[in-house]
Design brief:
This protein has seven helices and 13 strands. By secondary structure, the chain is α/β, with parallel strands linked by helices. The protein folds into two domains: 243 residues, Vaccinia Virus protein VP39 (Rossmann fold); 34 residues, no CATH class. Strand 12, helix 6 and strand 13 form a beta-alpha-beta unit. The protein is globular and about 75 Å long. It starts with a strand and ends with a helix. Bound molecules: S-adenosylmethionine. S-adenosylmethionine (SAM) binds next to strand 13.
């Protein structure tokens, strides 16, 4: 049985919203549970957005917890709403070359019924993973999987390199003469699918307590996906939430959240992080 931690910032507004979120599991809570067991208790088609990162092969030591990838993929397909999105952040172990587990997982998701909507890159601006006989690895994959066509896309933008007023060449007319016309270049453009983040303290997060977990992903990464693929009030799920990054950012972005981790120790860290931030925004 999953164990619910205490509600973090229950309010009448939250309670009202819970009733419309087709899930039999209470939202805005963190649970200690195996995520496969947990998802079996969730309603089908109840989650708008999942952002999660699995254990990477045996790259990290998670106290030897079981990790049944196929059952997790099938559980995610069942609980995701039609048009909902799963962002699967994953890297490969290097042993006799790259394991390519990430690719195998992506193909499994596709064969199970997800669309591989995008294959994005999480680029680390600073990285400790140097190799003596290959270039320093500075990225992980972010597989953006959707159950049908994504129902929400709020594109994030970035400043353009050239902007303001410029004389621009117009298409030649029938007389074949080039003409220049004063036009305004856009100040913003839609981002590319390579996102770069600083990692470590004040990059990944400023919450020192989070680093008691060995593999935290950046808060900004979670926030950017939350804004891109969900709207306020939507349900954001992390079935392997570790130190609670996805749930913290969902809270700060006015989304509902459910976080699950098999480790009681990690859920304690997540609970403490969210409690601090729930107090800040209360
Ligand atoms: C890469 S970490 C996630 C880190 C998280 N994104 C963060 O920012 O802190 C993977 C997590 O999966 C959890 N985990 C492994 N197997 C699990 C399972 N079967 N059910 C739930 N959680 C599991 C581990 O305890 C670990 O915290």
């Amino acid at each position: 049985m999953p164990t619910a931690t205490q509600p973090l910032n229950p309010s009448s507004a939250d309670t009202a919203r819970q009733t419309v979120l087709s899930t039999s599991i209470a939202v805005n809570k963190l649970y200690v549970s195996d995520c496969v067991e947990f998802m079996r208790k969730m309603d089908a088609n109840s989650v708008d957005l999942t952002i999660t990162s699995p254990p990477y092969d045996d790259l990290r030591n998670y106290n030897g917890y079981a990790f049944d990838f196929e059952a997790i993929a099938e559980g995610l397909l069942r609980v995701t709403k039609i048009g909902g999105v799963v962002v699967w952040v994953v890297g490969d172990r290097i042993k006799k070359g790259r394991t390519l587990s990430s690719f195998r997982q992506a193909i499994y998701f596709q064969e199970a019924g997800f669309y591989v909507h995008d294959v994005m890159i999480y680029r680390k601006k600073n990285t400790p993973f140097m190799r003596s006989n290959a270039y320093t690895n500075c990225y992980e994959f972010m597989f953006v999987l959707s159950k049908g066509t994504p129902k929400t896309f709020n594109p994030l933008t970035e400043p353009t390199v050239r902007n303001g007023m410029e004389m621009l060449v117009t298409n030649k007319g029938a007389d074949a003469i080039n003409r220049k016309v004063l036009k305004e270049l856009k100040k913003e453009k839609t981002r590319t699918n390579i996102w770069s983040y600083a990692v470590g303290l004040h990059g990944t997060t400023s919450d020192r307590i989070a680093f008691k977990h060995p593999a935290v992903f950046p808060e900004a990464l979670a926030a950017d996906h939350i804004e891109s693929w969900s709207n306020e009030g939507d349900l954001v799920f992390d079935p392997m939430c570790g130190s609670g990054t996805t749930c913290k950012m969902a809270l700060l972005k006015n989304r509902q959240y459910i976080g699950v981790d098999i480790s009681e120790e990690y859920i304690k860290i997540a609970k403490e992080r969210l409690r601090q931030h729930a107090n800040v925004i209360a």
